[in-house]
Amino acid sequence: MENLRHKNVVKIFGKFTVDEGIKGLVMEMCQGSLQDLVKAERVYRLGEISCVGKQLLEGLEFLHGKRITHRYDKVGNLGRQSGKK
What is the pTM of this model? Predict the structure, then answer.
């Protein structure tokens, strides 16, 4: 998983196991989540919504193409970076 590289996928630096098989990942730190944008209570332009949706779908398509899925796909788990291209 450390070799996954895509502009819309959080970088994974490593993985670890603790005690009785509790597994975790060491990941890139994000500036927030999509949930933060929803809670901001502002009106978003169609272009902004389209851009975010496109980026999400590109990231998911990349991961699913590698036969990887996220166990908890929800707005709070979708990280975001401002100005990331």
Answer: 0.68
